[in-house]
Amino acid sequence: MSRLAGCAAVAAALAALAVTPAGAESALPGVCLGDPSANGVPMAPGPRVRFGITPAGEAGALGPAVPFVPDDPPRTLAALARLRPPKAPLVLRLNRFFWADGEAGIARFLALAKRYTDAGYLVELQVRYHPAPGQEGNVAGFVAFVREVVDRFGPNPRVVGLQVTNEVNFTVSPDSSDGAYQGARDALIAGVIAAKDEARRRGFGQLTVGFNWFYRTDPNSEAGFWGYLRDHGGPAFAAAVDWVGLDAYPGTVFPPVEAPGGERDGMVAAMSQLRRCFMPIAGLGSKVPIHVEENGWPTGPGRAEDSQAQALQTMVRAVHDFRGTYGVTDYRWFDLRDHNTSSTNFQHHYGLLRDDYSPKPAFEAYRRLLDDLALREPDAGLGPVRLGLRVRYRRGRCAPVRATVTGADRPLVRRLDISVGMRRLARIRRPPLALTIRRRGLSPRHRYRLRLRATLADGRAATLARRLRACAR
C-alpha cells in the first residue's frame, strides 16, 4: 500500500463513524450536540488546570501494525524535565496497560510508575480491558485484575489516577480501544465500581477512579452507550466515578477536516457535549469533573510540524478558557514522542518529539503554555503541612496529648505515624484533623520522645517531635 493510499484508508475508516461537521449539526433534530462553536459561550472562571502528558509514545492505531521505536529512559526523563513547569505538578499518563499481559504487565508498569514517581512526577494508569482470546467476556476476571492493580499501585502515594478501560464507545479499533471486545461495557461498569471500592477499603485516598469517552461516534451509538451505563450501572456506578475522561482530536478525527483555528470550536463542542448531553444520562452531575485525557494533533504525511504547534496552542487555550464553563480540571497531551517517525500512518506521529528525541516546534509551544497556565502548588492545596501538639499537666499526672494536622485539606493527608522513641504506637490512615494520643503503658519516671509524621497523598511529609512524660498509672 502506498503512503497516500495507506493514509486514505485510515481516514476513510475514521470518517465512516463521524457525525456531520460542526456547521451542519443543526440538521440533526432532537439530538443533543452541545455548543457547536465557541462564539457566544461564556468563559466562566475556575481553578487552573492540572496538566500532563503521555510520556512513552506508543500509540494504538487503525491500520497495519507498525513497530514502536523503544524509548530511552534517561532521554525521556531529560525531556520531561525541560517540559515541566516550575512549582507545579505534571501528571504522566501511562497507557497500554493490558489485562491480557497479566503479571508481566503489572511488573512492567510498577517499574515505570516507580521510575517516574521517584523523579517527582504524579502518575495515572490507563488500565485496558484488552483481553487475551481466552479472557474475552470474563468480566469477573477483569474485576479481579483491577482490584489487584489497586492493591499493587495504591501504596505509591504519587499514583493518583486509575482510568478503567479505554474508549469503550469506540468499537472498530481493538488496538487502541476496548469497545471492539465482547463484554467491554460491563467491564467498564464493574471495573470502576471495584476499583473505587478497593481504593476506599485500603485507604488509598489519593487514587481517583474514572473512565474515558471518545469524541465522537454517531448519535445512536452514543445514546446506546450512555443509556447502558445508566441502566446497568445505576447509582453504584455514578457514586464510584471520580472523573470522566475526554479523548478529542479536532482537526484529525471527528470531523476529519478543520480550518486552521477551527480546533477551538472542536474542543468546545467536545467538552460541552460530554458535560451537557451525555454525563447527565449516567447520573454524573456537575460535581464530577472532566479530565481531557487525550488531546493531540499528529504530524506526518501532509501534516506540517508548524501546524501541529498552532493547533496545540489553540486547543490548550480553549480548555483553559472554558475550564470553568464545563468543569474541566485536568489536561493531558498525547503524546511526548512519536511512535515511529518513519511510519506512513499519521497516527504514529502525535509526539512533541520525533522518535530520535529531536523536538518539533510544538514541544517549545507546550512548554511555554505550561509555564503560563499550569496549576501551581498553592492552587492545588499542596501548601506546607503543620502539626501541632497540646499537652496539659495537672496533679502530677499528664492529660492525653491532643495532636492536630493543619494547613492541608483532610483528603491530602494519607497517613499519620505516631511513635515513642523507637517504638511505633500507631499508623492511622486518612486521619482526622485532630486526635487524642494516650500514653499509658510507659514508665512515668522517664521522659519520652513523641514523634508525629504526617504523609500527604503527593508523597511530601512533615514531622514534629517533642519530649513528654508518660501518664501515671
Topology at a glance:
Layout: H1 3-15, E1 50-53, H2 73-83, E2 91-98, H3 102-118, E3 122-128, H4 139-153, E4 159-164, H5 184-202, E5 208-214, H6 219-240, E6 243-248, H7 263-278, E7 290-295, H8 305-321, H9 323-326, E8 328-333, H10 361-373, E9 386-390, E10 393-394, E11 397-398, E12 401-406, E13 413-420, E14 423-429, E15 434-437, E16 447-456, E17 461-469
Parallel strand pairs: 1-2, 1-8, 2-3, 3-4, 4-5, 5-6, 6-7, 7-8
Antiparallel strand pairs: 9-12, 10-11, 12-15, 13-14, 13-16, 16-17
Helix pairs in contact: 3-4, 4-5, 5-6, 7-8, 8-10
Walkthrough of the structure:
The protein is 31% helix and 22% strand. The chain is globular, with a radius of gyration of 25 Å. It contains 10 helices and 17 strands. The protein has 473 residues and is an alpha/beta fold. The strands form 4 sheets. It has an 8-stranded parallel beta barrel, surrounded by 5 helices. It has a 4-stranded antiparallel beta sheet with strand order 14-13-16-17, with no helix packed on it. A 3-stranded antiparallel beta sheet has the order 9-12-15, with no helix packed on it. It has 2 domains: 3-373, Glycosidases (TIM Barrel), CATH 3.20.20.80; 386-469, Immunoglobulin-like, CATH 2.60.40.10. α5 links the parallel β4 (159-164) and β5 (208-214). 44% of the residues are buried. Mean pLDDT is 84; it is low at 1-27, 381-385, 391-396 and 407-411. It has helices spanning 3-15, 73-83, 102-118, 139-153, 184-202, 219-240, 263-278, 305-321, 323-326, 361-373; strands at residues 50-53, 91-98, 122-128, 159-164, 208-214, 243-248, 290-295, 328-333, 386-390, 393-394, 397-398, 401-406, 413-420, 423-429, 434-437, 447-456, 461-469.
